[in-house]
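This follows on from our talk about sequence and fold. Can you supply me with one protein entry, sequence and fold together? Could you add the entry underneath, on a fresh line?
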Amino acid sequence: MTTRQPPAPDAFDHRMAVFGTDDDLVAAALPFLREGLAAPGEPPPVAIADPRNLDLLRDALGRDAKDVTCVPHTDWYTGSAANAVAQAASYLTAHAGPGGRIHLLMEPVWSGRAGRSARETTEWIRYEALANLLFAPMATTALCAYDTRTAGPAVVAAARRAHPGTEVYQDPVRLAAELDAVPLPLPPAGAQPLAEPHAAAVQDWAEGRGLPAADAELFGAAVAETAAALAPLDGTALLWGEAPACVCELRSARPVGDPLAGFVPPPPTEPEPGPGLWYARQVCAYVDIRDDARGATVRLQYA
């Protein structure tokens, strides 16, 4: 069991604990939660974890358990990595102390979306890396808990690169660029071109591919919003796939250029950077962005 704790009391403190037994989990989490309980000016710490692990922590905390907010991790991690960003930001706004002060113990759901494939794992590691930038202004202390019995050695090794204080930590922008250097698979030969990716046209296509009407409406809106944010488009949109994995690829005549694109909500008084990418990341399972010499390719996959 290893725990890394970089000294950053007045900024986002992004720690990582690796454990392989119940005892190691308690040994890593208990001091962290007690640190939060003792921190002046902070609300109660929050433990977001597997329900079984929450029971272990309650038992270990004893009387202090009543002062720790416990959240089953399946209630917190309900969708894409971008959903996790939005969930954390919303919780900090509503519950954190001054400057975002709060202790969060966070155990990802590796048996769910984040753990089903290498593709999903890559998306999660990107979120872990970019969290260092997204929450940099906040005085939040987060301990990301990685159980080797569920996450596995490859996932843990990748996650170490996204956490300050480990011996292999990498700059978030550099790590995200490395992940994005992997070329996207070519669209299938039967992909359907769409000259004007309006919401209604995409919705009709998605319903024809078996997506329920409500989901097709969300996907159509995500494509239309993204197209507006990327304008001017370079060529036609391409659509392919069957429900639930409906895909749309858009080409922009200009690069996106921002690794945080779509992870930060646009200011309400400023329509740029495009609200479409924020909306698309909330709606779609994946939003892949690849800049090149001619502009950018943005690929949206609904599920």
Observations:
- The first strand starts at residue 2 and ends at 4.
- Residues 1-9 have pLDDT under 50 and may be disordered.
- Residues 41 and 97 are 7 Å apart (CA to CA).
- DSSP finds ten helices and eleven strands in the chain.
